[in-house]
Write the structure tokens for this entry.
Amino acid sequence: MISVRFQKSPGFTLLEVMVAMAIIAIALTAVLGSQSQSVSLATEAKFSTTAVLLAQDKLAEIEAEKIGDLTSGSGDFGEDFPGYRWNLRVTDTSFDELEEISDHLKQIDLIVSWGEDDQYQYALRLYRFFTKT
């Protein structure tokens, strides 16, 4: 009588390899998604910090101007800050009860934007009282 013995192979079965590949694929998807979100948050944080500083700089320029020199406009921040733009809108404010100060009070809206199609925006509103000269 001939006896046949099968020895157990020390290798992996196809099912074990497929399960391991599925686990690796799920783990890599989670890691890459986390990395993408991290890059987005870092970009947003960079804009938030830079936009506030640029808005402060622009407001300092506005504070130095006289009431007659203050006009609406737009522009950029030069080569040092590529892609950053500003938009300034100056409007008169009116108070029916206080007409004597309405001529000296201006509403100033400043928007600093950056990115494709102005994806990121920082808006600031300032009311400025100009004394009689």
Summary: DSSP finds two helices and four strands in the chain.
